[in-house]
Amino acid sequence: xxxxxxxxxxxxxxxxxxxxxxxxxxxxxxxxxxxxxxxxxxxxxxxxxxxxxxxxxxxxxxxxxxxxxxxxxxxxxxxxxxxxxxxxxxxxxxxxxxxxxxxxxxxxxxxxxxxxxxxxxxxxxxxxxxxxxxxxxxxxxxxxxxxxxxxxxxxxxxxxxxxxxxxxxxxxxxxxxxxxxxxxxxxxxxxxxxxxxxxxxxxxxxxxxxxxxxxxxx
Length: 218
Fold this sequence. Notes:
It contains eight helices and 14 strands. The chain has helices at 10-22, 33-42, 59-68, 84-92, 105-119, 152-162, 171-178, 189-201; strands at 2-6, 26-30, 47-51, 53-54, 57-58, 75-79, 97-100, 126-129, 132-135, 140-143, 146-148, 169-170, 206-209, 213-216.
């Protein structure tokens, strides 16, 4: 997923960024509300991880503004506020989930996947397309019951396609899943990873819809 992290704590921010990047997500890390709003204005994110106490205000105000603007980007609040009243307020403002610091990074990843599945219209953790089984929660794929080894970026492309099986996903949408700010984007990058997936999963696994994009299955 393309993820925006708004967190001013340097140690926690670096830990979350490195962990999510290592597991195949493209993540942009901003440390203030102003920086976060600028990123939101520039990029269509799949998920927002939002701290509440920030140097220039509270994350709840940003969350309220997003929902008032009909921005439905999933939001998980990350905060040291552990009072039930704080959780209720965050959820009432439009948050999708709430994680109290300190938290386990594996739990964060699981909650992210759960929220993403709900927004994709599927509560299941496994997407079946022909002989392919894409296990979203475990971040792996099997072909005819046998595990297929994928790199983190190969997985990022496959996961973006699997989120909407049978639907066309544009090249730009796949690029958003691959790269964070500052990353070099080459014109043929998506084609390269689609080609690698076809070699590993079968030539018909990913269909090219010329001039529009790609899709997984029919």
